[in-house]
Amino acid sequence: TNGLTVHELAQEIKQPDTEVIKFLFFKGIATNINQTLDIPTAKMVAEAFEVEVETAEAESEAKKTTEMLDDADLENLKQRPPVVTIMGHVDHGKTSLLDAIRKAKVASGEAGGITQHIGAYHVDVEHDGNKRQVVFLDTPGHEAFTAMRARGTRVTDIAVLVVAADDGVRPQTIEAISHAKAAQVPIVTAINKIDKETASADRVKQELMEHGLVPEEWGGDSIMVPVSAITGENLDLLLEMLLLQAEVEDLNANPDRLAKGTVIEANLDKARGPVATLLIQNGTLRIGDSMVVGSVFGKVRAMIDDRLNRVEAASPSFAVEVLGLNDVPQAGDEFEIFASEKEARSVADDRATDQRQSRIQQSLASRRVTLNTLS
Ligand code: GDP
Ligand code: MG
C-alpha cells in the first residue's frame, strides 16, 4: 500500500519508463523500473507530466488516517482543515511561531483583535484562490502525542517541527521526530530564526537528513520552510505548505452526522461551570446535542469559538468551548453524541459505576498488598 513501481507509474501516466527515470534522475533520485516510489513522489512525477493522480493506494491510505469514520461516512466525505501541532526543542521558537501566526492571521481581521485562549485556534489561508483553514492545537506537541498514544487516538494531522537555524538539531528535535513517526503523523519543518546572522538553513537540512528527513529540494519528500517568527518572513509560505501537505493526506470527514471528537482542555470556571474545549473530528456538533464524555454528560448549552463568537454549530477539525456538562471531563477523552439526554445520562451513569467499581477493586488490591507486607 506504500506506493507503486516506476514501471507501474509510467504505465499509469502513459509515458515510457525511460522518461520517468530521466525525470527522477534530474530531481536527484536514482531509480530503476522496479523501484517502488512512495505516493508523494509518484504524485509529484505524475503532476510534472500533467496527469491528475487518484491511485487506489492513495485512497486506502486516506481511509487509514480517518480513524473516526465508519462505512456510512465514506459516501458523504467532505474535505476538512488540517489539525496541526507544533513540536521542537526548547527555545527554538514554538510559542513565538504560534503567536506570530495568530497575530498575523487572526487578530488583524477581527473586531478588536480579541482571541481567546481555548487550546486551539484556526487561521484563514488563501490557497489556490480558495479560502481554506488551518487549525492549530495550542497544547505542547509532545503532550498531545503522549495523550494520543496512551489512548490510541489521533488528534493531529500534521506536526510542525520547529528547528532554530542558529542552533540546529537538538535532543528534543530528535525526540519530536520519533514521536511523530511513531504516530505516523507527517512532519513539515519550520527552520526558524533565519533572521539571525548565525543562521544556516542548509546546516539544519543536513542534520535533519541524518534523522531521515530529506528536503524536497534535495530529492526527498520532506517539506522544509525557512521562517522567522520575529520578522514574519515566510509565515504565509509555511501555511501554504501545510495545506499542500494536507492535500497529500486527503483529510476528510462526514459533516452530516452526530459529532465525535476529543477533549483538548477542560476546567471548572467559577461563573460558567464546567468548560471543555472539544475538537470535532467527525460530524457536526450543535447546540442542544446530548453528550457523553467519559462518565460526564450534558446537553450542549452554548458553544464559543476561538474568536469569542457564540456559534450554533461546529464542523470537522474545528475546536469550540462547550458549556452544559455536569462535570469536568478529562483532556484526551473522546466525546459522543446520543439521541436523547436520557440515553446520554444512562451511558454516563453506567461508566461512572464501572469506574467506581474498578477504583474500589484497586484500593482493595493495594490494601491487601499492604497487609501482606505487614504480616
Ligand atoms: P519555545 O521554547 O520553543 O516556545 O521558544 P520561544 O518561542 O519561547 O522562543 C525562545 C526565544 O527565541 C525567545 O527569546 C524568542 O524571542 C526567540 N525567537 C523565537 N523565534 C525567533 C526568530 O524567528 N528570530 C529570532 N531572532 N528570535 C526568535
Ligand atoms: Mg514555548
Walk me through what this model shows:
The termini are far apart. Strand 8, helix 8 (201-209) and strand 9 form a beta-alpha-beta unit. Strands 5-6-4-7-8-9 form a 6-stranded mixed beta sheet, sandwiched between helices. A 6-stranded antiparallel β-barrel has the order 11-12-17-15-14-18. A two-stranded antiparallel sheet has the order 1-2. The chain is of the alpha+beta class. 35% of the residues lie in helices and 26% in strands. The protein is built from 10 helices and 18 strands. The model is unreliable at 55-66 and 108-114 (pLDDT under 50). Helix 1 (6-12) packs across helix 2. The chain has helices at 6-12, 17-26, 39-48, 56-65, 94-105, 141-151, 171-182, 201-209, 235-249, 341-374; strands at 4-5, 36-37, 78-79, 83-88, 120-127, 130-137, 158-164, 187-192, 223-226, 252-253, 260-269, 273-282, 285-286, 290-293, 296-304, 313-314, 319-325, 334-338. The protein is globular. It binds guanosine-5'-diphosphate and magnesium ion. Magnesium ion binds at residues 94-95.
Characterize the biggest β-sheet.
Answer: 6 strands, mixed
- Percent of residues in helices comes to 25-40%
Question: How many H/I helical runs?
Answer: 10
Q: Write down the overall geometry.
A: globular
Strand content: 25-35%
Strand runs, count = 18
| Average pLDDT metric | 85
Ligand inventory reads: guanosine-5'-diphosphate, magnesium ion
Structural class: alpha+beta
Strand order, biggest sheet?
A: 5-6-4-7-8-9
Amino- and carboxy-terminal Cα gap: 59 Å
Helices and strands, in N-to-C order?
EHHEHHEEHEEHEHEHEHEEEEEEEEEH
Give start-end ranges of low-pLDDT stretches. 55-66, 108-114
